[in-house]
């Protein structure tokens, strides 16, 4: 497995939790949406699940250790 794939797999659960949390808070905090929560929350779950892997894939290269050292940026 490539490093990017392993990092994306590791961060997929926290990314999913953040996406779901943001969607659930949005649905439950707006009164007009809260009335439709029994339909919207499953949509938030599915949408969050589908968005998790692309977001984790985009974030994975930014989490590599080589980007944490200033001299690595100059030499790369």
Task: Name some characteristics of this structure.
76 residues; mainly alpha; 4 helices; 79% helix
Provide a descriptive summary of the structure in words.
With 76 residues, this protein is mostly helical. The protein has a domain at 18-61. 79% of the residues lie in helices and 0% in strands. Helix 1 packs antiparallel against helix 3 (37-59). The radius of gyration is 17 Å and the shape is elongated.
Low-confidence stretches: none
* Large-scale geometry: elongated
Number of helices: 4
Number of strands: 0
Beta content comes to: under 5%
**Structure classification:** mainly alpha
State the major sheet. Answer: none
Helix content: over 70%
Rg calculated over all Cα atoms: 17 Å
Distance between the termini: 23 Å
Query: What is the mean predicted local confidence, pLDDT?
Result: 89
**Helix/strand order:** HHHH
């Amino acid at each position: 497995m490539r490093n990017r794939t392993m990092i994306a797999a590791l961060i997929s659960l926290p990314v999913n939790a953040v996406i779901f949390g943001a969607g659930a808070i949005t649905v439950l905090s707006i009164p007009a949406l809260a009335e439709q929560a029994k339909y919207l929350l499953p949509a938030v779950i599915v949408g969050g699940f589908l968005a998790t892997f692309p977001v984790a894939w985009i974030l994975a290269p930014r989490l590599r250790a080589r980007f944490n050292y200033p001299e690595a940026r100059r030499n790369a």
